[in-house]
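Can't attach files on this board, so I'm pasting raw text. These are the components:
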Amino acid sequence: MTIKVIGFARSTNTLRVISCLNELGIPYQLEPPADFAAIKKDDYLAKKHPFGKIPVLYDGDYKISESRAICRYLVSKYQGKYNNTILIPHDVHEAGLVDQFIFYESFYYEPVVAKIIIHEIVLKTPESEIAKRALKDLDKVLGVYDKLLEGKEYLNGEFSLADLFHYPCAHFIYSSHADLWDKRPNVKKWLNRLRNRDAWKASLEKKNKL
Amino acid sequence: MAIKLIGFAQSPTTRRVVLVLNELGIPYELESVTEIQTIKTEEFITKKHPFGKVPVLCDGDHVVNESRAICRYLVSKYQKDSKTVLYPDDVHKASLVEQYISYELSYFDPPLSKVLYQEIYAKRRGEPTDEAVVKQSLEELSKTLDIYEKILKDKDYLNGEYSLADLFHLPCAHIVYNATGHSDIFDSRPRVKNWLDKLRERDAYKKTYAE
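---
Top answer:
Structure tokens for the assembled complex are below.
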């Protein structure tokens, strides 16, 4: 039975999971809800996600939510089954460092880019104080990332789940703030590698079709 | 060589790691940071944590930071030597633990951290408490805890059996519960109360918070 993902192809969290499925070569079906209101209804809250969020993944009868947890599940179960892509290394020390970079994404990167996305794209208030402050914060975070990426193509040397997690949010705000990213040579090259991955391009096709 | 943990002894993030070290019976040395300036030096930023944060764990030559990443690393490497299971072997159970770990990050920690900052850290820094932020954060936390009350139906722990997901929730909840006036937000929900009570009964909890 094919894996089913409930989510919107244009949402950053769903794109995170679609990227992961594509990277590992796992076949799946995307089932978008009718609209955003549908995921707040009692039926959805009771059966799919108690916080009314997407994506939710079904693998047969098994259901799991939260994009990063879903991706880890896919790696645990399917890494190496459909292709040779490694998203979490087998070595415990390397995996520990990938985890560390995953938490950098959660704590220092995502909260800041999420604010920019919400204010610029969702609320359409790019001049708000919150958006302006978030851009300044992002500037500092990318300064740290530029040093982290010195001498490396990816955060932990080789491409991993940590790099994958960063890209969907970057995709949405890159074009309106290209200078912020591109003025840092290591960050610029890193983003370029991420956007040119076949799995990402396939994920975008999904977004653009729907 | 013993594991070395660098951190502020009483901070919730350091305690998160100490809880795991104690649950798995791993010997370690705590290198207590006493002044915040120590972790903002060029050397610390280059060698220990690029964002100038603690805790940082040194296991021989291996350095890893971010409390939840450190905890996962300890479980991956040392759980097999312990009788305590923090992370199940079965991929389906383990992934549900991951889901609850993500709930902690997404829905529990953000409002709780804001309350913690306003009620404890702001005061320490001599900043005024923003009551509006406290109120809004408590409302958000209330909604989260209403959902946790449903998740914990017929269960003592989030995924049925005790796991890393439960452990991750405890340190920030502990401080807000004990050191601010907001214990009722937890105690007014019987299953949430039962869950926290169970977490506090564990030997590792008692050992961690005795220190």
